[in-house]
Design brief:
The chain is built from eight helices and 14 strands. The protein is an alpha/beta fold. The termini are far apart. It binds zinc ion and fe (iii) ion. Zinc ion binds next to loops.
């Protein structure tokens, strides 16, 4: 009939699903409709993650780990056994993540279909902590390095390292969606109000967070722009100020 069927490649965005597990962990499932790939980021446990994927008709093809803590890798073996998925994680922590198929370091790229994630080394919470940055979305899976109005505890690193991480993250596209691994926003915000009592943006945000939490709603993902305005660790002017705030928060 003379109809010319033009071949087009439709680039569809990722779908990201939040799976709340344990007390306050979030496992993220990122699904690429074009390739059918699905990655589970930091699966603390297996069954709720497998169930969430199955409900959507998604097949988990990969796991990306940010660090070795049990509440980030606990589901690795069981999900791999169930799906045959491929597991990527930080080279520096490979001895503590026995299920890894691929070890990555700063600057490596990891593909989800045709979507590229770049590995950022962000040590401090753990010595080999990494993040997965997808500038094309834009989004970042940040594990326990940056939280809404907070940052990870300094278990295996220094305030200088965490300050360098915060500086680095502050230069990402402000619209970058930040997928952190815990719902800590309300307690972080209570500290943020004390750390920066004159910060109107924190007060405004906390009012919204309190409403969301009282309705049982999640408060992440956040964005780089929102953290720049309200996160006392990202806003610390130097490593010693970050160190002071981190110590105060630990005792808060
Ligand atoms: Zn952790
Ligand atoms: Fe954690």
């Amino acid at each position: 009939m003379g109809v010319h069927a033009e071949h087009r490649r439709v680039v569809m965005g990722l779908e990201v699903l939040r799976v709340p597990v344990l007390r306050d962990n979030y496992v993220w499932l990122a699904h690429d409709p074009a390739s059918g790939e699905t990655v589970a980021i930091d699966p603390a446990v297996a069954q709720p993650v497998l169930d969430a994927a199955a409900e959507r008709g998604w097949q988990i093809t990969q796991i990306w780990n940010t660090h070795w803590h049990a509440d980030h890798i606990g589901g690795n073996a069981e999900i791999k056994a169930a799906t045959g998925c491929f597991i990527t994680g930080p080279a520096a922590e490979a001895p503590r993540i026995p299920t890894l198929d691929r070890q990555v370091t700063e600057g490596d790229s990891v593909m989800l279909g045709e979507h590229t994630a770049y590995v950022l080394e962000v040590p401090a919470h753990t010595a080999g902590h990494i993040a997965y940055h997808m500038p094309g979305e834009p989004l970042i899976f940040i594990g326990d390095t940056l939280f809404a109005m907070g940052c990870g505890r300094l278990f295996e690193g220094t305030a200088e390292q965490m300050f360098a991480n915060m500086q680095r993250l502050s230069h990402l596209d402000p619209e970058t969606a930040v997928y952190c691994a815990h719902e800590y926003t309300q307690s972080n915000g209570r500290f943020a109000l004390v750390a920066e009592p004159d910060n109107e943006a924190i007060r405004h945000r906390m009012a919204e967070v309190d409403v969301a939490r009282s309705n049982g709603e999640a408060t992440v993902p956040t964005t780089i722009a929102l953290e720049l305005a309200t996160n006392p660790f990202m806003r610390a002017r130097n490593a010693s100020e970050l160190a002071e705030r981190r110590a105060a928060k630990d005792a808060f």
